[in-house]
Amino acid sequence: MKPNLGLVFFPAFDWMISPTHPERQERLLYTRDQLTEEGLFDVPQIREYRPRLAEINDLQRVHIGVPSIARLITPAHLTSAGGCLVAADAVMSGEVKRAFALVRPPGHHAMKIVHGIRGFCTINIEAVMVEYLRSVYGIKKIAVVDTDVHHGDGSEDIFYHDPNVLYISFHQDGRTLYPGTGFPEEAGSPAAWGTNINLPLLPGTGDEGLHRLYDGLIKNILEDFEPEIIINSAGQDNHFSDPLASMSVTAQGYAKLAQKLNADIAVLEGGYSVEAALPYVNTGIILAMADMDYSKVIEPDQSNLRKQDDRCNKRVDQLIAETGEMWHNRLKTSKEMLAKCQGTWSRKKNIYYDEEGIREEQIETLHYCNKCSGYHSIQTAAADTRFGDQSAFIISLNRDTCKTCQDAAYDEALKEKRKNKWQYVFVQHKANGEIETI
Amino acid sequence: MLLGIDVGGTFTDAVLIAQGQIIAQVKRKTTHEKILEGIIEALDEVLCNEDVSQIERVVISSTIVTNALTQGHIEPAFLAVMTGPGMNVSHSFPVEPYYVSGYVDHRGKVVAPIDWSKHQDLHKKLTTQVAAVSGKFSVRNPVNEETLAREIKDCSCKKVFLGSELSGELNFVRRTNSAYFSAIVTKEFEKFCQQIERSMKQRNITAPVHILKADGGTLPLAVALRQPIEAVFTGPAASILGIEALGASSLKSISLDVGGTTIDIAFWENGLPLMAKSGAVVDGYPTSVRSFHMRSIGIGGDSHVKRVGTDFSVGPERIGPAVAVGGQEATLSDALITAGYIEFGDKGAAQKAIQKFALPEENILEVAEKIINVATKQIEVTIQEMLHEWSIQPVYTVNDVIKGTDFEPELLIGVGGGAKGLIKALANKMALPFDVPRGAMVANAIGAALARPTLSASLRADTTEGYYLIPESGKREKLPSGFSLAKAEELLANWLREQTSKWQLPDQEVEVISKEFFRTIHGYYDSGEIISLSMQLKPGILQKVAGREVEL
After folding, report:
1. Which sequence positions of A are flagged as catalytic?
2. Is the interface score ipTM higher than 0.90?
C-alpha cells in the first residue's frame, strides 16, 4: 500500500535563535513526544523521511543574500529547506500521496532580498520548494495557502509578481500583530494582480469563522485557479493557547481545515504554544493528511478557549464579499493596470528586521516585455546589519527572460556598477540559482 | 563452566565452555513437538562426562515464545487501554481493547484520573486469568496505569502486565502490544520455565538458569517471567552473540548466518552488532522488544534449485539434504560443490545433479555459477536494502544530518553450516574480503552460553514539576537538590546496580544508550530542565572463545 503521507519530521534539537527565544530547541520536543507516543511513525499510512541538506543554489533560485546567502545562514537552514525538497520529491515521485515537512527553522517572513533574520526566518522554505518544483518537475501553477496567524510578508514579497503562484494568507489583522502588513489591497503587481490574497481576521476568530471563510471564499478561489499543486504554510499560531497571538482556533479546527484543503505538501511555519497546542495540532494535521480519523484529537485543556464574538463573522463575510469581487475582476483589472504603467512598474519598500534591528530600504522595478515575463531590478540599502551598513543593486532574470531583456538587464547592471554607488552588483538567474557578481 | 543451549528451527545445540575453550558440544535434531525433551537430551549428552557442580550458569535460547505465538499455544488475555485524546487505536492491537477513562499528558501531568462510574461493567468484561493494561504517557506517570492494574487484580485476575513496566520508552502502541503479547504467552512460558527448573534440580544443577532475549542479553528466569515477550526471536540473537564470541572483527562488517533454509544478515561496527532503531514486529504488530538490525531471507544450503527458462530460482523452499550427501534433488550446496567453492560429500553426485540443468550449449561450471549468482544476487539486494534503510533512518539534529548514518561495509563474516562456500561467492561478487571464524558451526549455542545479562531502564526528570521517574521501577520521587544530567546518570546507574545485586548478576559496566537535555521556558523565562536518560548493563559476551570444529 502506498502511504498517504510522507512525514519529514525534523525538530532540529540543536538549533535555536537564542536560549529563551520562541525558536529554541524545546519547540518541537513535546510534539516529538506526542507523535512518538501515539505510534504515528509506525502506521502504514505514514512514512517518515529524513531531510537532506539543500544546496546553496536551491536557495538562490529565490533569494539574493547580501553579502551572500552562504554567509547569512547556518546548516539548520539548509536542513529545513532540504526537508521541504524531500517532501516535494516524495510526492512528485509518487511514493506518497501527500507530504508534511514538519521542520524548523521556519521561513514565511523571509523575503527575496536577505540581509538577516526577520520574524524568526532567514530562508523562505516554501518559496525554495516552489522554485525547485518548477526547475526539477516543470510544475507551473502553484497555490500556497498560509494558515499561520502572522501575515506571510516574505512569501508575499517573493510571489507578488508571479501570476502563476496564488498566495492566500489569512491571519490576525496586521493592525494588531506583527508584521503589520497583509491587507486586501496588497493584491499583487499589475501582471499578477489578484493572485496575492490577504484575509485579515479579527482577533478572537475561531474554528467557526475560519471555516466560514474557507467554505465561502478560499475553496472557490482555489477551484477557480486550478493549481497543479497546493502547498500549505502550516503555521499553528491561530491556536487559542498561542502566546504570541490572540485567535481561538482549535486542533480540530486545524485538522478539519487540513482535510478540506487537501494540500499536496504542507510545511510547518509558526506556532509557539509548544506544550498546549503543537502536540495536538500537529497530530491532527498529520492524521487528516494521512486520511486517518482525527476526531479524537482534542486538547486536554480547553479552559482558555473563548467562543468568537459576532464581529468576527461579520469581518469574514465582508472579506468574502470584497475579495470575491476583486478575484472575479482580477484579469480585467490586471489588463488596465498594465496598460497604465507602460512597461515598467516600481514600488518602494521599508523593511524592518525585528530579530536583528535592521532597517532596509528597497526600490523594486519590474520591466515588462511582450515576448517574456521581463526582469526585475532591485536597489537595496540596509543599516545596522551584522556586516554593517550595506547596499546592493540586483538584477533578477526569470526563467523565460528573452535575449533582448537580458541585454537590457546587463546594460543596467553595468551602468549601476560604473556609478560606484553600490557595494555589490548582482545578477540572479532564477533558472539555476546562480548569482553573478558584476 | 558456562552452558549454552540453543533451540533452532533445525538443530538443538548445546555447548560447554570453560576458560575460553569449548570443552564439549552436541548437535541434535530439534524436537518440535516437545522442545523441552530435545533440550534435556542435548543437556545430558553435553554433560555426560562433566562435573555439574562446576557449572556457573545455564543459558537457554529457545523458540518457546515464538512457537507459542505461531502455533497458537496462547491464553486469552484482557486488554485495557487509557488512550486519552489522539489517534484512533481501534486497529492498533491484536484484539479490540477495553477503553478506560483517564489521561496523562506528555509532561506526565494527570489530566484526568480514572472515572470509575464509567466502568461499572469492568468486572463483567473481565473473564480471563491474565490481563494487560496500558496508558498513553504512562512512562511519564504510571499512576493511572497502576490504579487500573490494582483494580483488575482485585477482580481475581492472576497476572497483570503493565505497559510501563515492559518499556520505559515512548510509544504507547508498542508498549501495549508488548504487554498484551506477554500476557497471552505467559502461561506457556511459565510452564516451560518450571519444567526447566525441575530438570535442573533433578540433575543437581544449582547454577542460575537464564533465558536469552531478542536483544542478545540474558535474564534470570524469575525476571524473564515478568516480560515473557522479550524472549521472542532469540535464535538470531544467539547467532549474533556467537559471532561476537568467536571474535568479530572491529571493521565495519556484515555477518551472514547461513542455515539450511535461511540466512540471517546483521551489521557490525567496532566488534558490536548494530541494534534496530525500533522494536521488533511480532505477529504483524509493532512492539517495544529491542532487537538487532537484521533480516532473514529464504536462501540456505538446502534451498531447492529450479530452472526457470534460461535462468534459475533458488529457494525459498528447502529440499535438502544436498544430492552430494544423499539427497534427491539439486540444492544450492550442490552448485557450490560443483563450482568448487566448498568440498563435502560426493562431488560426482553433486555434478550429476547440476548437469541435469545444462542446456546443450552450457557447460556444467557455467550452470553452477549461474545458480550461485542467482542466490548471491538476492543476498546482495537484501544487503543493499538494509544499507539503504540504515542510511535514511530519521535523525533529529542538524549535526546528525551533516554527519550522516551511512554504513560502508569492509568485511563479510560467515557462520553456520552453509556459510563456507556461499560467503566466498558473495565476497567475490561484492568485492569484499571475507572471514569464516572457526567454531562457526555451533555459534548460536556459544552465543547463548556467553551472553551477558542485560537490563535497561530509563529516567526522566522534569525540574519544573520537581520529580524524577524510572518507569521500569514504577519509582516516582522528588528531585534531590542540585539535580543535573550527571546526577541523573548516577541515580539510574545505582538503580541498575541494585537490580544487578538483587538478581545476583555479575558486576557489569553500565552504559548510556541515549540522553537528552532540554531547557524549558515558561513565559519568557528559564523555568527548568527536562532530562531523559536511558541506560543499560552493557550487553555483549562474557568472554571470547577459541572455536573448535565439530563433525556432524
Report:
1. 109
2. yes
